[in-house]
Amino acid sequence: MPCNHRFLxxxxxxxxxxxxxxxxxxxxxxxxxxNNANWFYGRRxxxxxxxxxxxxxxxxxxxxxNRQNPEIWKNYCIKNGIGLTDIIEKIIDANIDDNQNEIYSxxxxxxxxxxxxxxxxxxxxIKENKDSLKRVYFTRYxxxxxxxxxxxxxxxxxxxxxxxxNIHNSCLVTPSNGYRxxxxxKIELWLNTINH
Length: 196
Description:
The chain is α/β, with parallel strands linked by helices. It has one domain: 3-Layer(aba) Sandwich (Uracil-DNA Glycosylase, subunit E), CATH 3.40.470. 34% of the residues lie in helices and 14% in strands. The protein has helices at 48-55, 64-68, 71-80, 100-104, 108-111, 122-128, 150-164, 183-194; strands at residues 3-4, 19-23, 82-86, 88-91, 117-119, 135-138, 168-171. Strands 3-2-6-7 form a four-stranded parallel sheet. It has a three-stranded antiparallel sheet with strand order 1-4-5, with helices on one face. It starts with a strand and ends with a helix.
């Protein structure tokens, strides 16, 4: 049984975008440890909803209450023209009986071991928003990706299109708490990249 993206219906924001933040994949399969997201970056082990708002001069939104009511995050994104999406839409050759470790690990290099990956059409999303879109960011450092892997190749296509359309683009330090750097340092790095 293939593994779809958990937020398949939200991969293509339907409002005018000024900013687009691109991640990798959020599986629809529930993790046995219960660390599942109710929306993009919504796991308790991710600081995105603290880092992003503070980067834009707003209050921390990384609360248990918001994780239970992701409409607050969605409305924030709509109000501020912020789109969230992921590179992978579906892993076709995933099997829930055999591939739980690869899917649940959330390590991108393990995702790239699959042979049948359906990508989100982020290039189309960017073209549809080319008149309003100012900045596109990958929420992880590119140098940590497999050199000839699906994720880096797709990001390179996104980057090239953004360059062609004069849309600023860059890779950001991951908001995942798995990358052990103090959150204040991550906020500072995001501020320096996004506000330049």
